[in-house]
Write a structure and sequence with these properties.
183 residues; alpha+beta; seven-stranded mixed beta sheet; disordered N terminus; FAS1_dom_sf; Fasciclin domain-containing protein
Amino acid sequence: MRTFSSAVIIAAALATANIATAQNVMVGGQSMLPSKDIIDNAVNSADHTTLVTAVKAAGLVDTLKGKGPFTVFAPTNAAFGKLPAGTVETLVKPESKATLTKVLTYHVVPGKYDFDALQGEIKKQNGKAQLPTASGGKLSFAMNGMNNIQVMDEAGNTANISTYDVYQSNGVINVIDTVLMPK
């Protein structure tokens, strides 16, 4: 029978706790649990109430609770606040559902793209990666310094990723500071 010293047991426990803590990222004042799906985590974030309202208005809740994997570039409430006055209110109206759906699915990339995967795509594509969105558009990605990736939409808007690698049971969320717009 093998015995372990208490130092080895404590070190193993600390390593396990550090891994768990690293995966439980705080967003909007709440822990985002990797065991929950994108929707179940997003509804707890105080920074994403506008996004959650929009996802509900577009009827995308069941889709984003699906198997995935999905990468969601999730605009904060402040990002929605940068849009011209009345834009959000107009988009969440029932008659704007098709437009709202297109805008929201433009923020979703099929697959799981955390920081390392995005950086790998940027390197593979010679400094500027393009990935297809669920809406049929394309998002572009480029390094901005050593530890920041910028996301560019087809309209020329640029968003910074403020929180990376928020792992979910069905994908990953990267929090962004600007709403991206499809063509």
